From TrEMBL:
The gene is LOC100795112. GO terms for cellular component: chloroplast outer membrane. It comes from the Eukaryota. This is Outer envelope membrane protein 7. InterPro entries: OEP7-like (IPR038944). Residues 34-82 are annotated as: Disordered. It comes from Glycine max (Soybean).
Length: 82
């Protein structure tokens, strides 16, 4: 019987603490909940910080070097067959 009474007291204390926090922080929680309700889930705010790419930013294929001017990779292993 003591365990049930102890559990009821703990549950009551947790409910009281939750209610006290809700009342103390009501203005802040209301603003936070309103901003969550007004948010746009498909929009990523991190994308706003990135510069927008335009067609002027993309290099033209005619401006690039031909494939023959590409130096060999530094880690290429060459062996001479004798």
């Amino acid at each position: 019987m003591g365990k049930a009474k102890e559990a009821a007291v703990v549950a009551g204390a947790l409910a009281f603490a939750w209610l006290a926090i809700e009342l103390a922080l009501k203005p802040f929680l209301a603003k936070a909940r309103a901003s969550i309700d007004n948010s746009d889930p498909p929009r990523d705010p991190d994308d706003d910080a990135l510069p927008k790419t335009t067609t002027d930013d993309v290099p033209d294929a005619a401006d690039s070097k031909p494939a023959g001017d590409v130096p060999p990779a530094a880690d290429t292993i060459t062996t001479d067959a004798v």
